[in-house]
Amino acid sequence: MKILMLTKSLFLEYFRNKIAFFFNILFPLILFILFSLVFFSEGTTNFAYFSDIDLDIYGKSYNNEKKLLSDREKYDAVAVIKDNEVIVYKNSNSAMVDVWIDTLVNRVKSFGLKNVVNIKETKLNYKIFSQRENIYIGTFALSIMSIGMFSVVNLFDRYKRVGTLKRLKLLPMSSFSFVFSFSISQFFISFISLIIIRLIGAFLFSISLNINIFYFSISLISSVLGMLGIGTLISVLFKKSAANVSQFLYIVFIFFSGIYFPLEFLPRFLKNLSFFVPVRYIVDIFKFSMGMQVINISQFFIYSFILIVFGLFLLLIGGKMLFETEKVGG
């Protein structure tokens, strides 16, 4: 009963904090709407190709066939033109794809290959997302990152400042009960945030993605725990400057997550740094739960497992350190 009451209090207290509500829920939504409206038009179709002849058609030209095939999930259709043969990997049934294929065939035939053109359409077994849908899914991760990371930092900083932790120590409550109640409240807040994002995506941009409830639930649990763990780690390591550090990391995580800025355009050494950004993996597991196979099922469970273990460990150990330290100091 005590845990239930504390969870309810922490949940309601979050929405009374207008600054936290804005930056953790409204701000990611504002970025989603702005980037969707300004940079990407609805219905954009993407193509790419590799050719051993000097072919000039609409789409991104690759110099390496293997690279094209490894990136083919990024496009609505890709084509490999070599050895007097055209192979098309088709991932959309839109009319624009058929028009592009017809244009491609006619262009190749103009090189005198009229009798040896062979189109093989291969329907890929995974979903390709538009740039707007990628931002939409990235907003899920951004909102959870904000809620998880900032809520821990703000909570301990504010509770210490106003003396709430000192009052809590008078209650017959362990640090585990406090951390558990706080974590549950953040799960509810994150769930509400995702519902709001989904409604905005559906009503403003007609985004409707098929969600695997099982994989999505794992993604939600692991990402919330992972970001709560990072927030706890920041609070433990930077007691006096945790808020500033979290704000700096927030900007870094956004830049290297690939949500708004494509990682393909970064220099190699910066691209390698993105592998150390947890939000990147959170975006990947959410994409997987919605049908985009940017990772395989083994990677999905590995990423989720690491986030859960990492988050639980830091929450329990770090939360106890912060809570018990305040007891001693009280």
From TrEMBL:
Compartmental location: Membrane
Signal peptide per UniProt: none
Domain called ABC-2 type transporter transmembrane: residue spans: 132-286
Family matches, as InterPro entries: ABC-2_transporter (IPR052902), ABC2_TM (IPR013525)
Coiled coil (UniProt feature): none
GO-annotated cellular components: membrane
MF GO annotations: ABC-type transporter activity
Keywords of this entry: Membrane, Transmembrane, Transmembrane helix
Name of a matching Pfam family: ABC2_membrane
Domain of life: Bacteria
Membrane-spanning segments: 21-40, 135-156, 176-207, 213-238, 245-263, 300-323
Topological category with respect to the lipid bilayer: Multi-pass membrane protein
Name of the protein: ABC-2 type transport system permease protein
Species the sequence originates in: Thermosipho japonicus
